[in-house]
């Protein structure tokens, strides 16, 4: 049983499986024909805001978004 | 000292011949939809009301492992945003496992396979449907149910060959100029995925 040897190259470089899988999926999506490409990219758009809490109070939220702020 | 060792060995062998200490998950029978003990004790205390439904009663029961090999496998091919195939009975599927293209027929040994970017082909009679998967897992159960999960899967004719060639050239160039391990890994992933798409379009 390989315990330390035979790890995939991305795991050896410090990447997790989820990161690897998402990178692969993004690459595939970018190589699609229109209109499937725009469908896939709009489907995967994210828009959310994160705020860290310290001492029971929220700090200023950061907004992560794929759509430009209008 | 050796007498004790032989007694220990004898004990473990006799235990394993008549009973496994832990049953395999594939040997477990299909769970009943409602617990009969619970229903009996409910009826004794509250005979007028119906027993409440538990989550288990809403789920479809797990298909039992048949004693003889079934003629078709049931494929559930799911993506995060859609269920491409849901309990479809087919003759064979070929999945792109990291260890190579793996053909799955009814009665296949239970397997968990990590998938690499490649083509999944579903064979039903004379029809073959091919999808290009980005990555994922294939779980094959003893009752000839195959669950294939992928993050992104497209029919092969939706891939644009021009973009694939451009991506391949770009990532080959990035691999040459990469410095950190992470950059090298990302460039290598790019090359792997684009060359898999290339062989999917041409092959």
List keywords for this structure.
heterodimer; A: 70 residues; alpha+beta; Atp Synthase Epsilon Chain, Chain: I; B: 203 residues; ATP Synthase, domain 1; 3 domains; 5 helices
Write up this protein.
The complex is a heterodimer of chains A (about 70) and B (about 200). Chain A has three helices and four strands; from the N terminus they run H-H-H-E-E-E-E. Chain A has about 70 residues and is α+β, with helices and mostly antiparallel strands. Chain A has a single domain, classed as Atp Synthase Epsilon Chain, Chain: I (Orthogonal Bundle), CATH 1.10.1620. In chain A, the strands form two sheets. Chain A has a two-stranded antiparallel ribbon with strand order 1-4. In chain A, strands 2-3 form a two-stranded antiparallel ribbon. The longest helix of chain A has 14 residues, at about 15-30. Chain A starts with 8 loop residues before the first helix and ends in a 5-residue tail after the last strand. Chain B is of the alpha+beta class. Chain B is built from five helices and ten strands. Chain B has a five-stranded mixed beta sheet with strand order 2-1-9-8-5, with no helix packed on it. A five-stranded antiparallel beta sheet of chain B has the order 4-3-6-7-10. In chain B, helix 4 (about 160-175) runs antiparallel to helix 5 (about 180-200). The longest helix of chain B is centred in the C-terminal third of the chain and has 22 residues, at about 180-200. The model of chain B has no long low-confidence stretch (mean pLDDT about 85). The interface of A and B includes residues 12, 15, 23, 25 and 29 of A. Chain A: Belongs to the eukaryotic ATPase epsilon family. Chain A: Keywords: ATP synthesis, CF(1), Hydrogen ion transport, Ion transport, Membrane, Mitochondrion, Mitochondrion inner membrane, Transport. Chain A: One of its GO terms (molecular function) is proton-transporting ATP synthase activity, rotational mechanism. Chain A: This is ATP synthase subunit epsilon, mitochondrial.
């Amino acid at each position: 049983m390989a315990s330390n040897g035979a790890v995939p190259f991305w795991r050896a470089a410090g990447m997790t499986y989820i990161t690897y899988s998402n990178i692969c999926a993004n690459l595939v999506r970018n190589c699609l024909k229109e209109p499937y490409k725009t469908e896939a990219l709009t489907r995967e758009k994210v828009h959310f805001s994160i705020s860290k809490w310290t001492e029971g109070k929220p700090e200023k939220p950061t907004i992560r978004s794929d759509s430009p702020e209008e | 000292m050796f007498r004790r060792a032989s007694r220990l060995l004898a004990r473990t062998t006799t235990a394993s011949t008549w009973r496994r200490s832990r049953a395999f998950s594939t040997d477990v029978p299909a769970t009943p939809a409602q617990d009969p003990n619970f229903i009996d004790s409910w009826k004794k205390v509250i005979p007028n009301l119906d027993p409440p439904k538990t989550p288990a009663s809403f789920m479809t029961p797990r298909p039992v492992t048949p004693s003889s090999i079934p003629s078709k496998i049931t494929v559930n091919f799911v993506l995060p945003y859609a269920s491409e195939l849901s309990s479809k009975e087919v003759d064979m599927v070929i999945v792109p496992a990291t260890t190579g293209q793996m053909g799955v027929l009814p009665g296949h040994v239970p397997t968990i396979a990590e998938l690499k970017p490649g083509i999944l082909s579903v064979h039903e009679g004379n029809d073959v449907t091919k999808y290009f998967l980005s990555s994922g897992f294939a779980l094959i159960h003893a009752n000839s149910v195959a669950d294939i999960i992928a993050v992104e899967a497209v029919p092969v004719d939706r891939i644009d060959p021009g973009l694939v060639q451009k991506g391949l050239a770009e990532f080959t160039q990035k691999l040459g100029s990469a410095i950190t391990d992470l950059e090298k890994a990302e460039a290598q992933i790019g090359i792997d995925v684009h060359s898999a798409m290339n062989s999917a379009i041409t092959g």
